[in-house]
Specification:
By secondary structure, the chain is an alpha+beta fold. The chain folds into 5 domains: about 100 residues, 3-Layer(aba) Sandwich (Rossmann fold); about 70 residues, Dna Ligase, domain 1 (2-Layer Sandwich); about 240 residues, D-amino Acid Aminotransferase, Chain A, domain 1; about 120 residues, 2-Layer Sandwich (Glycoprotein, Type 4 Pilin), CATH 3.30.700; about 70 residues, OB fold (Dihydrolipoamide Acetyltransferase, E2P). Helix content is about 25%, strand content about 30%. The strands form 8 sheets. It has an 8-stranded antiparallel beta sheet with strand order 14-13-10-11-12-15-20-19, with helices on both faces. An 8-stranded antiparallel barrel has the order 22-23-24-25-26-27-28-29. Strand 24 and strand 25 form a beta hairpin. Helix 4 packs antiparallel against helix 5 and helix 12 packs antiparallel against helix 13. The longest helix has 17 residues. The radius of gyration is 27 Å and the shape is globular.
Length: about 650
């Protein structure tokens, strides 16, 4: 059977790294491509060859079909793997790849075209007697003329896309026109197709999907199901396999429906059929993704099947060598999407440069990050995926929570604590979740990235600070017998988030005693590995991460960040120095609270605004954010124009009362 010798990966970030690693295991050479703002990405350094895609727009880089094909030909690549997103479900690109004499690692152009457009896909599966959600499709005008057929609330979706782009719930008929216009703009921008779909909204549904493999030679099998109900902004956050929330009867019906679709089109490659399942066990076809999914690792964890390997084998012409009866679930797996975003601020994407990186042991971490990476606003906020596997769902949840605590991404705000709050919630543990659960429970979840003083882990923070600054181990020296700073300086004054703490340290035979708030704590088994400090306090094992900031020490513990200072640390003596920048925003000035690109402006100088009125839209990390007027006011000056790139805290609009 023919095998590829070299492939080009027409994608970036973690999925490019993922494909490269499997290709290497198969002895296949890899060619990476990258935009200038991805030059320090791990996929560039791990590939056998890497080529710059000149330009600053996606149309010039990762969506530049001519350039990708040129690089493939010049490097002698025999196939192109598109990953997910970008060109992975672009039928025209797949056709061009195959006309160039190369193999497209994915579905056929016909299959991509048939299943990639929601309206067409729904009509096709209806003929197969698979249930679909009732709704309307068409242009904005076509949908508005038939709005009396809709039962509100409804969900607006881009007909030609996915990933949450252009999706929004509409509760009242009078809101429909504005939402349709916004969705149309996003649909045209991201998918080149401004047709929309409006369907009945199911607020308590679960998102269940079935993983498929087909060899285009008449054989298709499923690799069980996944649950992807924990979502924000219609994008998945936590996925797990198998889906323990559904009955065996519903599960079997989902498998049958998915295989019916795959067999009807003689499917080629890896694909996923997505369903919504209601609380009565009824299910509805959502869409088919004719590509690898972001959440594919949980399926790999429980089945032992490398899906990327089989994508490559099938693209090279191999037949599936195993049967449906060979597929079974081994334990439980959960994937956590770690993103650079602020959950407490409407999941605003966050910029930054990665300082240190520590990955927990005994988990899978799929990512493109290396120390020194700077996050670009041109892509989504996904930093990496933690994939955890254990014998049961309960054990997997516990292991996942520990992994989040032990994952350190220095210098970048992430959603780790938000994910952990979900894992620790009783609803998640008891599997009482649905697609709107996370957003409905935002107020109940602790989203803050700053430590809550009412639950401050003071002794752990103080111990880490003292060990880091005053008692580092030396090679070849028994640190617990060493004399020096500890004997001379036993009383410390330390500030945590501006509050004073007095701590006494007493040296014992093979340990230290920290005395705070009239309580003694036993401290031993200390070690430092990069930014990670491990120690035992009162027989409790602690892992804390430390980094330096001007004038203070940042201590990261359980995904929270605390600022510690002491006059006994040389570079922290000026403790009363006030910050140069104020975090307050004046009512007569509107500034950006994120970085990104201005894609629309709704106001002009002289306009009279009311509080909450939409002023402009900024796109950041593939999401849109509307900036609203903070008060009743008149627009004085507008400092940006459509298409401008803006930075965090940049002045956007001047207002006057």
């Amino acid at each position: 059977m023919r095998r590829f010798h070299k492939i080009l990966i027409a994608n970036r970030a973690e999925i490019a790294v993922r494909v490269i690693r499997t290709a290497k295991e198969l002895g296949i050479k890899t060619v990476a491509v990258y935009a200038a703002d991805d030059a320090d990405s791990l996929h560039v350094s791990e590939a056998d060859e890497a080529f710059l895609l000149p330009g600053s727009q996606l149309s010039e880089t990762y969506l530049n079909q001519d350039k990708l094909l040129q690089i493939a030909r010049e490097t002698g690549a025999e196939a192109i793997h598109p990953g997910y997103g970008f060109l992975s479900e672009n039928a025209s690109f797949a056709e061009r790849v195959e006309k160039a004499g190369l193999s497209f690692v994915g579905a056929t152009p016909y299959q991509i075209r048939l299943m990639g457009e929601k309206t067409q896909a729904i009509e096709f599966v209806k003929k197969l007697e698979v249930s679909v959600i009732p709704g309307l499709q068409g242009t904005v005008d076509e949908i508005l003329t038939q709005r009396n057929k809709l039962e509100f609330p409804v969900l607006v979706k881009a007909s030609g896309g996915g990933g949450g782009k252009g999706m929004e719930v509409v509760h009242k008929p009078e809101q429909l026109a504005l939402v349709l216009e916004q969705a149309q703009r996003q649909a045209q921008q991201y998918f080149g197709n401004d047709e929309l779909f409006v369907e009945k909204y199911l607020p308590q549904a679960r998102h269940i999907e079935v993983q498929l493999l087909g060899d285009s030679k008449g054989k298709a099998i499923h690799l069980l199901e996944r649950e992807c109900s924990i979502q924000r902004r219609y994008q998945k956050l936590i996925e797990e396999a198998p889906a323990t929330s559904i009955s065996s009867e519903t599960r079997q019906k989902l498998f049958e429906a998915a295989l019916k679709i795959a067999q009807a089109i003689n499917y080629r490659g890896a694909g996923t059929i997505e369903f919504l399942v209601d609380d009565q066990g009824g299910f509805y076809f959502l869409e088919m993704n004719t590509r690898i999914q972001v959440e594919h690792p949980v399926t790999e964890s429980i089945t032992g099947v490398d899906l990327v390997e089989w994508q490559l084998r099938i693209a090279a012409g191999e037949e599936l060598t195993f049967e449906q009866s060979d597929i079974s679930a081994n334990g439980h797996a959960i994937e956590l999407r770690v993103c650079a975003e602020d959950p407490s601020n409407n999941f605003r994407p966050i910029s930054g440069t990665l300082g240190g990186l520590c990955i927990p042991e005994d988990v899978r971490w799929d990512s493109f990050l290396q120390a020194g990476n700077h996050l670009s606003p041109n892509y989504d906020s996904l930093l990496g995926k933690l994939i955890i596997h254990a014998n049961s769902r309960q054990l997997t949840i516990e292991k996942a929570s520990r992994a989040l605590d032990q994952l350190y991404l220095g210098g970048i705000m992430t959603n780790q604590e938000f994910l952990n709050q979900i894992l620790r919630s009783s609803d998640f543990k008891e599997n009482k979740i649905h697609t709107r659960w996370a957003e409905n429970n935002l107020s109940a979840l602790d989203n803050s990235s700053v430590g809550d003083d009412s639950q401050l882990p003071a002794v752990e923070l103080l111990a880490a600070f003292l060990l880091y600054h005053f008692y580092r181990p030396e090679t070849g020296v028994d640190v617990w017998r060493r004399t020096g700073y500890w004997r001379l300086l036993q009383l410390f004054n330390i500030k945590i988030n501006g509050e004073n703490y007095r701590v006494k340290v007493v040296k014992k035979a093979n340990e230290l005693r920290i005395i705070w708030n009239e309580t003694a704590y036993k401290l031993n088994h200390y070690q430092i590995i990069g930014p990670k400090i491990c120690f035992r306090i009162n027989d409790k094992d602690i892992a804390i991460f430390i980094s330096e900031e001007e004038g203070c020490t940042l201590v990261h513990y359980r995904n929270r960040k605390y600022r510690l200072q002491s006059n006994q640390v040389l570079n922290q003596v000026q403790l009363n120095k006030s910050g140069a920048l104020s975090s307050e925003v004046k009512i007569d000035k509107v500034v950006a609270d994120l970085f990104g690109k201005v894609i629309d402006i709704f106001v002009k100088p002289g306009d009279q605004l009311h509080k909450g009125q939409n002023m402009l839209v900024i796109e950041s990390m593939k999401s849109e954010f509307t900036i609203q007027s903070p008060s009743d006011a008149v627009v004085k000056n507008i400092h940006v124009a459509k298409g401008n790139l803006v930075q965090d805290r940049e002045l956007l609009v001047d207002l006057e009362s």
